[in-house]
Amino acid sequence: MIKVGDTLPAVTLYEYSEVEGEGCSIGPNPVDVAKAAAGKTIALFALPGAFTPTCSAKHVPGYVENAEVLKAAGVDEIWCLSVNDAFVMGAWARDQKSAGKVRMLADGSADFAKAAGLTLDLTGRGMGLRSNRYSMLVKDGKVAALNVEAPGKFEVSDAATLLAQARG
Question: What is the pLDDT of residue 21?
């Protein structure tokens, strides 16, 4: 499993863009993790699935509501990762009103989750291989803090915990 001091996995995630701009076309666009994280402080959190109860009611809203406070604490960007495709993440971003606050990044094939050693096997529940629920503070592509949830829990990967670590 990835740990504090490690570099983020060198994978490509995908982000659905509603508008054209800054080299991004409408629709899914690749996000090279190493390039996107270079020189930035990122509040990254991951969860098992878009539109799922805890993820939609608590996890994403906490980061959307605290986006300005996190940025005031030195966070450049907030990333939400989930093992869903970019179209689903785009629809979820609209539903959660996260535009301009949280980047909703698709890890469709679980490449990031696998490389980080943070997968969650929900095959028995019909959901396949997913991401564990966690958060991490990333500085210039390296993990500065990591908070991995116990199965079925939502206690340490919330926005308040990461905010305290960003203020550190």
Answer: 65
Give residue for tokens 């926005």.
159
Closest CA to 38 of 138, 129, 117, 168: 138
The two three-digit tokens of residue 79, written as one number: 């990333």
| Token pair of 159 as six digits | 């926005």
Structure tokens at 80: 């939400």
**pLDDT tens by residue, 121-148:** 888 887 888 899 999 999 999 999 999 9
Instruction: State phi, psi for 51 to the nearest 5 degrees.
Output: 65, 10
Would 1 be classed as within a structural domain?
Answer: no
| Enclosing domain of residue 104 | 12-167
Catalytic residues: 55
Q: Decide if 7 is inside a domain.
A: no
Q: Using alpha carbons only, what angle is made at residue 159 by residues 140 and 62, rounded to the nearest 5 degrees?
A: 130
Instruction: Please report, in angstroms and rounded to a whole number, the separation of the first and last CA atoms in the chain.
Output: 23
The count of domains in the chain is 1
